[in-house]
Write a structure and sequence with these properties.
The protein is an all-alpha fold. It is built from 11 helices and no strands.
Length: about 375
């Protein structure tokens, strides 16, 4: 049975085996993306949240076809980042959104987990492709069995991803989200707290958590502790982004140094994940993997370990740029907007309640 697809989504069916589809069929026509809605300082916190979700839905519809096709790994990366931003928006603005919309975070977390496996394999295969020409010519054939094994794993992971994207729960969730952000829930509410009164404390709270996590790092810190810092940096970035246009240049500069910090930490994390995958394969090698390949995998795992250690060195410098004058400038801008904003009312914001969770299975809870 074919599953109905959301407007703007393309269903790509694989007729052949392997990581890439050999023939494709277009199941649903490509529809226009949602019309962009600008953010301004007069909006309520709920309106900023819905405006952000509106833009993120357009991003999802733009990236999903490429992620399904699989020819450009960056399309899957962009789709996964969009899902992360949706999840962050639902978490951050939970008090100002309908409970049914916030409960739909469970579906996003399931999708993030499913999208993560093929993305990790894309990164590792890309790194092996880059490394191959650097190996002595006589050692390069030993890399082929490992590449074939990882490509097979990626094909299976992509199959699970397509199945999840094709599911009735995912397509219904996308369709209903689109209806909610383009529907009557845009009507302003007299009890809505203004974004200018709400956003400063949200941003400052996320910054304090990032600073606390970073202060815990030392030369003996585990990869899990560094990963926690990266997660905090992402959350701060995703908190600033929805209202960045309101705060102008200070927000733009802060986002730029946050992206740099996130990239430094991400390089370390990618090397760590690649090393662990190689060690897991070596511990329980698939049948037919030659001894030369296993030996090469040990050397590559050591190479990834050294790359992860090397990637730690610029992290402190990147953090100094985050906590320095960029943060002070943004904090001053936040305080100016807060001082000019009316005090938020005690009433909780209620926008039109939309049941996005109808028909969704109860997903497992995973970290985004």
């Amino acid at each position: 049975m074919k599953v109905p697809f959301a407007q703007g989504a393309i269903a790509l069916m694989a007729d052949g085996k392997g990581p890439e589809p050999k023939s494709l069929s277009l199941v649903a026509p490509l529809a226009p993306e949602p019309t962009a809605i600008p953010v301004d300082a007069s909006m309520s916190a709920g309106e900023v949240a819905l405006t952000n979700l509106h833009a993120l839905l357009a991003d999802w519809l733009r990236h999903e076809p490429g992620a399904r096709l699989g020819q450009d790994p960056e399309a899957l990366h962009d789709l996964r980042v969009t899902a992360r931003r949706m999840d962050a928006t639902l978490s951050l603005f939970a008090p100002y959104l309908p409970e049914s919309l916030v409960r739909a975070r469970g579906k996003l977390k399931t999708l993030l987990r499913i999208l993560g496996t093929p993305r990790d394999l894309d990164i590792q295969l890309g790194e092996l492709t880059r490394i191959s020409p650097q190996l002595p010519e006589g050692e390069r054939p030993a890399l082929d069995p490992l590449m074939h094994h990882l490509e097979s794993e990626r094909a299976r992971a992509r199959g699970r991803m397509l199945q999840a994207l094709d599911s009735e729960s995912t397509r219904g969730w996308i369709d209903t989200l689109r209806a909610s952000v383009e529907g009557p829930s845009w009507a302003p509410s007299a009890s809505s707290p203004g974004a200018a009164a709400v956003m400063p404390e949200l941003v400052r709270g996320r910054f304090r958590k990032l600073r606390k996590a970073f202060r815990r790092l030392n030369t003996l810190s585990s990869m899990e502790q560094y990963h926690a810092v990266r997660a905090r940096a992402k959350k701060l970035r995703y908190t600033i982004e929805p209202a960045a246009v309101i705060y102008g240049k200070p927000a733009g500069e802060m986002l730029r140094v946050l992206r740099r910090l996130q990239d430094r930490l991400g390089t370390q994390q990618d090397a760590y994940v690649a090393k662990n995958r190689l060690l897991a394969i070596a511990a329980d090698p698939p049948r037919g993997l030659p001894s030369q390949t296993l030996f090469l995998m040990g050397r590559l795992a050591e190479r990834h370990s050294m790359a992860a250690a090397q990637a730690r060195k610029p992290v402190e410098k990147a953090w100094r740029k985050v906590r320095g004058r960029r943060w002070r400038a943004l904090r001053l801008e936040l305080e100016e907007f807060l001082s000019a904003a009316p005090a938020p009312p005690a009433a909780r914001l209620r926008v039109a309640d939309v049941n996005l969770t109808a028909g969704l299975e109860r997903p497992s809870q995973v970290n985004a």
